[in-house]
Amino acid sequence: MNGSPRIGLLRSLALVLAKDILIEWRTRARLNALVIFAFGTLLIFSFALGPDTQLLQRNAGGYLWLALLFASLMALGESFRIERENSALDGLRLLPVDPRALFLGKALGNAAVLVGLAFVLVPVMIGLFGVSISLSFGLLAVTLVLGCLAISAPGTLYSAVASNARARDVLLPLLLFPLIIPALLAAVKATTVVLQGDPMSQLRSWFGLLAGFNLVYWGLGFALFPLVIEE
Amino acid sequence: MTWMHCLGALVQSASASQAVGAGRIVGGWEYVWAAYGITWAAIVVYTTSLIMRLRSAQESEDPR
Amino acid sequence: MANRVRWAFLIVALGMLVVGAYLALAWAPPDREMGDVQRIMYVHVPQLWMALLAMTLNFACSVIYLVRNSWKTDSLAEASAEVGVVFGAVGIALGSIWGRPTWGVWWAWDPRLTTAAILLVAYCGYLALRRFVDDPERRAVWSAVTAIVAYVDVPLIWYSVQWWRSLHQVQSSPRTVDPQMVLVLRWQSFAFLSLMVFYVWTRYLIAMATRRRELAMPAELSAPAPMQTSEVAR
After folding, report:
1. I want to staple C151 with a disulfide (CB 3.0 to 4.6 A). Which of B62, C59, C62, C156 is the partner?
2. Integer distance in angstroms from the first to the last C-alpha of chain A?
């Protein structure tokens, strides 16, 4: 791999992404299960919190992101389970694939799954909680994408770690959740504002926080992931 | 506990009219004792735990 | 000899804490607004400062470990994380106890307490990770990565919670203007610092002993073993 590292990285990234998307598409059942799980979670929130429509409307953003976060645990856990079984990760390491490209590919793939899930859940949320989009759908889309990216970067990093440890199902949320709180706060606030209106012009600050969080976490993941998977 | 709180509130409203020590919380020593008690209990427990763990770690090593 | 120095830190710490208790409970004046309840500050604040110091030490060791592998650095990271969690847990509990008579509630989403609570969970996760990874080298690398990510998150958590809270009312903090209060706070801080040195040092010795047992290497070791067939954690 003596060509310009930049090109090598992008090409490796594209390959990893394509591989993962292909695997996901071939095992669509898992994606379907993920959607149903997230939908079920949203449903349970409605029941647990009661039929007070005002309450549901006000907190719809929160429930949406909670459902996404729980679903992300399943998606993230899966993304490295595939590699661990059949020692596929060893195969990847032997190839001249830049581990950073592996991180970017996996994290982007995970983010794509989450974004897809988010868009599927939006009409469900609108239906169940009786909310409507006060600002624009474009802004909602930006919020969803930023939030999913923010979950995916540290989630992919920690998933690589947790998938090789004992008690991996507990370890991933234990590591991820405290970290993700700023992103969660910002995403929920931004979503709520997009749904209910922005009288105090907060949206910019929350987008700023989400963008900053993403920058920091993608940067850290990019730098630290090679250390995590090296033998 | 809550009656201490009420007492404090009463004292606050009473003292407001005197314009002396406005907003002063009266008493509350049980919280102070709880805080210092927890601090010292934690110190005793953790120190003991560390000393015992070090001892067992060093004993299980081969004698040099 | 080193052992005597280590024990000296404990003796000094305990002595200072006893004196400090007198200073805090009897000598320092009651606060103008909070009365005697404010005396909790003299144990609450220093312990949280120690927790922060321990986390910073953990961060430094984690970074250093990734640059230069060393079991000493890894053990120090392990020690400082555990001590930080202990001080942090007690500090938060004390903050809650202080909040009850002053705010009227056990918990009030105060930005500092909230950030501290989040950090506590994050570092408990760090300790859990260390417990669940059996291979010492992997454990060292992964926990270093986790610690770095967690520490970098601290300002993010702080600002996001502050912004989140700023939409509701913000609790004011007590003003320590009185020089007697400052003196007691300083005294207590040094006392807890001495205690922390003892804790971290002792915990470091425990970690090094464990490392030696895991690697079956001679007593003086500073570099990780060359690639041996170490048991990979399931």
Report:
1. C59
2. 20
